[in-house]
Amino acid sequence: MSYLVLHMDKFKKEAVRGIQSHNERERESHSNPDIDYERSGHNYDLHEPAADNYAQAIQNRIDDLLLVKAVRKDAVCMCGLIVSSDSAFFEKLSPEDTRRFFEESKSFLTEFVGAKNVISAMVHMDEKTPHMHFLHVPVTPDGRLSAKTIYTRESLKKLQTELPRHLQSRGFDLQRGVEQEPGAAKKHLNTREFKQQQEALHSLEKEAEAVSASLEQRQREESVLLERLQSYERQAQEAEKELAAQSDIPAASMFNYKSALETAGEIIERQKKALAAKSIVDAHNEKLSAEIHSLHETTAALNRRITHLEKEKAEEEKRFGASILNLSSSNQNLLARLEETENFFRWNPEANQMRDDYEREQREEARRKEAERKQKAQELEQQERQREEERAHQAKEQEQQKALEVERQLLEREQQRAQSLERRPRGMGMGR
Fold first, then answer.
1. 325 and 194 in contact (C-beta within 8 Å)?
2. Measured distance CA(317)–CA(201) in Å, rounded
3. What is the mean pLDDT of residues 276-304?
4. Helix (H, G, I), strand (E, B) or coil at 250
5. Which CATH architecture has domain 2-177?
6. Against a cut of 0.90, is the pTM above it?
7. Given 18, 136, 168, 211, which residue has the most CB atoms within 10 angstroms?
């Protein structure tokens, strides 16, 4: 029997956009090789969206609550439940029954969280195993936004027990995941380890399918050999009947010796053929019996392998189900610790004062660092302006120096020309 997979996550505001992009397949992800985008057209949402996007739907629901206090920026504004099972479970279902499985799950979860709080119920058929992402705003019955109130350790345990029971009543052959024994070591799987476990389970299923196919082939071969063996046995029986028959050979005389001789020859010839056929049939029977015996041994080995694989697969599914539960259990442990911390601050005035002092110091430190950053930026900007002014001043001085140098050179040439004219003798250059 397969196990139900039910995993819960909590999301803050900054994660909502990414969740929508993944669920709606708004763009191709190169980091998730499990998605076959050619099959993405088979995905479907079982919930009619109330807004254009997840963020708007969440905000609309929060606005409806008319909360007195503003929602904190780091508050959990959306929760997600993943519903699935192993591939063997879905292989037994038709597309219609698969959709009905998710519809029944969605109906049960909707009743658990409240219909007004549902954001999406997206079914993914383009990954290795079909699964549903059920998203909702965590609103309590008394109209508060509080995921920790909805998902306590007890409520999650109850949900993980009652959902498979509900699905069983609707005709689905699956059971609750294995519950962690008290005091047992818990292992929290990361995404890579979780996928590795899925791959191992998928590999076992493929190997079992291959062994089953080989067993069916061997059984077909054995059936053909048995038919041939039965045919040979019938031929051997006919030969034995021929040999055992008491043929009357007429007494020969001078009047009928020819016909008596012909009759005797026919009888002898039939018995010779019967002996030859029996010899051939006996040889075939011996060969076929050996082949059938070998097939029996191969079939027995394949049956043992299938039994081993089924046992190994059942153990892997059991570990798989337990790991899923442990993921949720680990989250709940963290939530419980967080709740204990919040209760400590809530009922301890001194701790509250310490927390307030710490938060105030953090804010002041942040303001101080921001002021220092702005001052530093201003200083750098001022320094840059000064450097620009200096470079402009230097460039201007260089231009002035160049102009003075050109003017000096012109003046020198004029002076040299004037001196040259003064030294020139009078009348020089005139004709006689």
1. no
2. 7
3. 65
4. coil
5. 2-Layer Sandwich (3.30)
6. no
7. 136
